[in-house]
Amino acid sequence: MNKDIDILIVGSGAAASVIAAKAALDGKNVVMLEAGPERSLNDLVSSQIWARKLKWSGAHVEEEGNLKIGNNFNAGSGTGGTSMHHYGVWPRLHDVDFTMKTDHRRGLDWPINYADLAPFYDLIQDEIGLSGDHVLEKWRPKGKDYPMPPVPTFAQGKVISKGFDKFGLDTAPIPLAINTRPRKNRRACIYDGWCDAGCPIGALGNALAYYLPRALNASTHSDNGINARIIHNATVGRVLTNKKGDKATGVDYFDQSGNKTTLTAKIVVLAAFAVQNPRILLNSASTSHPNGLANGSDLVGRYLMTHPSNTINGIFKDPTTPHLGATGGQLICQDGYDKKSKSDGAFGSYQWLIANAVKPNDLLGMANSRPDIYGEKLKPFMQTAAKHYGTMVCVGEDIPKAENRVMLSQAKDQYGLPLAKTIHNVSVETDRLINQAVQQGLDIFKAAGATDAWAGPRFGMHILGGTVMGDKPETSVTNQYGQTHEIENLLIAGPGLFPSSGAVNPTFTIHALALKSVEYLLSHWNSIAK
Amino acid sequence: MNNTISRRHFLKASGITISVIVANQIVQLSPSQAYAKEAIIRVLSEAQTTTLEVFAEALVPGSRVAGISHFIDSQLAGPNEDSLLMLKYLGVPQPHAGFYQAILDALAASVKTYFDKPISELNSKQMEVLIGLINQDALEDWAGPSASFAYFVLRSDAVDVVYGVDQGFADIGVPPMHHIKPKQVW
Fold it and tell me: Which of B83, B94, B133, B160 has the highest number of chain A CBs within 10 A, making it the mutation to test binding with A?
């Protein structure tokens, strides 16, 4: 049976699901190896406590640095991977995000530009379905109009937008991979703010709502009638190669009992997110690749990034009904995004995601926005917050630096494999950028009528880089299609490919890149899978 | 749409049900039910349980009867990968039993050092002093993970059991608005 596998994909999340669906519909036999448990949409319980099951549950990741990447918060586990707890905020990268090194002598350039990626954004947008208002998004790069009208703006969004208005800043409905009307047998959102716990009605375009069912239902010519399947609770330890080391032959994985199984395939795709992909490559060292696979230039794991982010919180006189809407927010502001060189030595782009739906508990809930309040004062605060709380989050750009990286730890997991260890520090320029944004956010809240406004702690949102794409093997791990420079039938997919972070949520771009990769792979099948 | 919700389904949708032992049987209860039925605490010691309940109650009133000790203990007794504790994504390696035992022991020891009495006998003024010292990491002989981090984690856990369930939503006027499951999955 193993000989029949055309494409072996490590992971079952956003990138994996796109590749699996397109390949399976093309008649390829696809196997996905998911480290977490099996889940369906019906398993997604609307609770911030239950939602923690969707977060990373695999091997511990050791983290260091002045802004840790927050692996366990940002990464996912189980069918659909990280996409299952993502909020569906799908802005596009801007033109200027692709040329940071050329324009600013910092970080890295992408091997492609926005125009190269735009057709793939458009295709994904048509398939999954996005809601938004391309006219009000005056900063939006050129692309097809959204196929669905925007999400409504509830009281929280209306209240906070007054502050933006007073500073002459524009806001627009946030572009969301969330149905605002029934579409393609998926229901419309009911704006109950449970996106973080996964969306059981399929309104939010996660992997289980769209691409995984298409992959798993694809039936063309294979013997058993089904072209794709997922093996759950399968932790991949190594990618295997031939003796010469120029061809991937499969992977070793461990089941829950610790039994090791080898699967062989014509193509291996690592789509296990930005930390585990480098870990697997580094753990796959062999005689022909003593420093790990695809690591001839010592770049595997490097240029690790996260979006430095900060919440702004406030209590408003007007009612805000903060539990309503989408977790990702109601409005967006990208005014000034394209000007990366800011005043006073700050550098980078940032965006505001405004009026996120919030629940009473959890890390980003109302209670933890003021961890200093306890005892008898807590309930009155909660009662006020339940009706008058508002929040927004600044998503900032990281500067890719080679010293920020994923490495192997001395410590090992239950299978005897070295753990991942990450180091991530933000530069002074980035620090200044977020400080400026926070001050702006507080001013906006006060202008919007907040009787009290405060900033939350800085945190890392999303994880990117670590297996960056580029033109040359000396400066990148893969080419623009995610093919590793050293082994052409070993591909990387996901946010690890990003050479720079931009300051937008990455999931739309992850889908677009995965579509670009799989289309290339399928159109060059005979040469790559030889 | 199917609005008929079984008791088990309701408990599941309400946010937390935990496996606990009552009268030698493993049953699924909410933490508050487990507290009311005096379900067996399996991982934490009696002293640690007392410390947890007293401290959590001081941080988030109502957390004792909401079942804070049973919630945390049940998560520590279960498989790591199924943990519902917020600690799961705060970067602390599992298993988490050692973390909780360490901070609760450190808390009890600090109370003894500073006030020369058990935590359950502190008056409200003394509890306020204690919380202030913990928040500032100012307890001189604190042994264990950072005291301010311990405060954040225990307060978050207590918020979970009080405000992360339907009763807590209702108490502050937030409609839970749980999704209704579709009749069929596409």
Answer: B160
